[in-house]
Design a protein that fits this description.
39% of the residues lie in helices and 23% in strands. The chain is built from 16 helices and 23 strands. Strands 15-16-17-14-13-19-20 form a 7-stranded mixed β-sheet, sandwiched between helices. Strands 10-9-8-11-12-22 form a 6-stranded mixed β-sheet, with helices on both faces.
């Protein structure tokens, strides 16, 4: 079994100490050992970042952007290698893995616009011989902590922008599938990033706590589950850091009686079962307005769920791979059991699925529940697996109330042909990202990403314009150059025009 190293100050380093196994979820076998960083290891990454910062912050933005241009090219050239690594450790299909990389590359493209996005604001002649401007300056050393479900895309939401803004970045990826994340970081160094500007340290809570507690770390970006997001937000802000912490989700799709049902079913299949439901934007609840819509939806979904092509993620032409770990598979199966006990109607049961040749893999087939009600655990909690719950309501207002009452508010969508209903939905729904006939409304890189309610702790969303604001601080400068030979008397009243 090979050991996956840290990447610190441009060097691959390992350490003896605590370590965990990284699995191939399709085979159920441990394939790598991953060292868990000690405090000293974290400190060495911080020291390297601190040392690299003065030169990097003074590197012209256009030069920083040039590194990102080369990085984009390297990512594209290595697409299949990266997708293979993602699929081997996460389990998602190769096509899905390539898709997440492409969405990650969008963020690199956005970062290529550094000279434009860092231009600042200027006002000439705000007073006699006085000009004023606002500058957006980097914070220094910043860190990111990322989840397992997008090992390429979510880190790319963070560090290209942070770095192009002039910061040095320490990334603590998920311990479940770190190989693609590490390779991508190496490609950025190959693209010409000075060593120390980006380090990758593997680890668990101890590593994260060391980053939270380090006074040199000025900001934390987190993406993961809500309890950890809340913890990192509380602990980070308590220490005066900037924190954006994106958490879990329960995303509802509303089906109106006038929806194009065939298209909605196709969209729901991908959004609920793609990546085995392990997406923070996955649709996990279909809210049907009227029994007629619900009956028709369930009738159309059942054969498609039963026909899902499930196998090792690295095989071609599949719809779904395994869940990430045996523990994740058992947890999702537990929710299915719980739903049955609570009285929901299990229309398709994916438990007990065995994939020939991969009997030890962490597989679970697609599951569908009908007649789910709001007090059930399968409705209230994030399942993060291939389970879709159908809830029946009588009106759009009732559907919206249901969504607005839910503790999460990451993504949602409505399927309808009625512009008035869609507009009302967009206006009144308390969710951060909304789709109209779009099941996974993940914003493009130049619109920021973030949920509402307990799906995000912090003020600024991830990437895009909010990302620039998060990774920079504003400095307002007021400058006067008196005209020669003029003398201005002291002014004791508060300066005004
Ligand atoms: P997780 O919260 O278990 O782990 C996320 C990161 O936090 C990992 O790097 C992990 O090592 C670290 N971590 C875990 N326990 C910790 C602790 N006690 N203290 C400090 N750090 C800790 O999440 P996950 O299982 O990797 O990812 C799935 C979750 O992420 C889901 O809830 C999903 O909805 C969420 N997610 C949210 C978004 C979003 O944009 N809102 C995007 C992707 C995933």
């Amino acid at each position: 079994m090979s050991v996956i190293p840290h990447l610190i100050n441009g060097e691959l380093v390992t350490e003896n100490g605590r370590a965990v196994d990284v699995f191939n979820p399709s085979t159920g076998q441990a394939i790598h050992k991953l060292p868990l960083a000690s405090r000293e290891t974290i400190q060495s990454a911080i020291d390297a970042a601190k040392a690299a910062f003065p030169a990097w912050r003074n590197t012209p933005p256009a030069k920083r952007a040039q590194v990102m241009f080369r990085f984009k090219q390297l990512l594209e050239q290595n697409e299949s290698r990266i997708a293979q690594l993602i699929s081997e450790e996460h389990g998602k299909t190769l096509e899905d893995a390539a898709g997440e990389l492409k969405r990650g590359i969008e963020n690199v493209e956005f970062a290529c616009a550094a000279p434009e996005i860092l231009k600042g604001e200027y006002s000439r002649n705000v007073g006699p011989n006085i000009d004023a401007w606002s500058d957006f300056q980097p914070l220094g050393v910043v860190a990111g902590i990322t989840p397992f479900n997008f090992p390429a895309m979510v880190p790319l939401w963070m560090y290209p922008l942070a770095i192009v803004c002039g910061n040095c970045f320490i990334l603590k990826p998920s311990e479940r599938d770190p190989s693609s994340t590490l390779l991508i970081a190496q490609l950025l160094l190959e693209a010409g990033l000075p060593k120390g500007v980006l380090s990758v340290v593997h680890g668990d809570k101890a590593a994260v706590d060391a980053l939270i507690e380090a006074p040199e770390v000025k900001a934390l970006s987190f993406v993961g589950s809500t309890p950890i997001a809340e913890y990192i937000y509380a602990e980070g802000t308590k220490r005066g850091k900037r924190v954006q912490a994106l958490g879990g989700a329960k995303n509802h799709a509303v089906l109106m009686p006038d929806a194009d049902l065939d298209n909605a079913v196709s969209a729901l299949m991908g959004a609920a079962y793609g990546s085995c439901g392990e997406r923070c934007m996955a649709i996990s609840v279909a809210v049907c307005v009227g029994d007629q819509v619900a009956d028709a939806l369930v009738a159309k979904l059942v054969p498609q769920i039963q026909a899902l092509k499930i196998g090792a993620g690295t095989s071609c032409g599949l719809d779904m791979g395994p869940l990430v770990t045996g523990q994740a598979r058992d947890k999702v199966s537990g929710y299915v059991e719980d739903g049955v006990k609570a009285g929901a109607k299990l229309v398709v049961d994916g438990r007990g699925l065995s994939v020939p040749g991969h009997e030890e893999g962490f597989f679970l087939g697609g599951c569908l529940f009908d007649n789910v009600t709001p007090e059930m655990r399968i409705y209230k909690e994030e399942i993060f697996g291939p389970v879709l719950c159908v809830v029946r309501v009588n009106s759009l207002e009732e559907a919206m109330q249901l969504i607005n009452d839910h503790e999460y508010g990451n993504g949602t969508c409505i399927f309808t042909r009625d512009g008035e209903a869609a507009r009302l939905f967009c206006d009144e729904i308390e969710v951060g990202m909304v789709g109209v006939n779009v099941p996974l409304p993940v914003p493009v890189a130049y619109h920021s990403f973030g949920g509402w309610k307990r799906s995000l702790f912090g003020d600024l969303h991830a990437y895009g314009p909010d990302g620039v604001r998060f990774y920079t601080r504003r400095k307002a400068i007021t400058q006067r150059w008196p005209q020669r030979a003029s003398h201005e008397a002291s002014q004791f009243a508060f300066p005004s025009l």
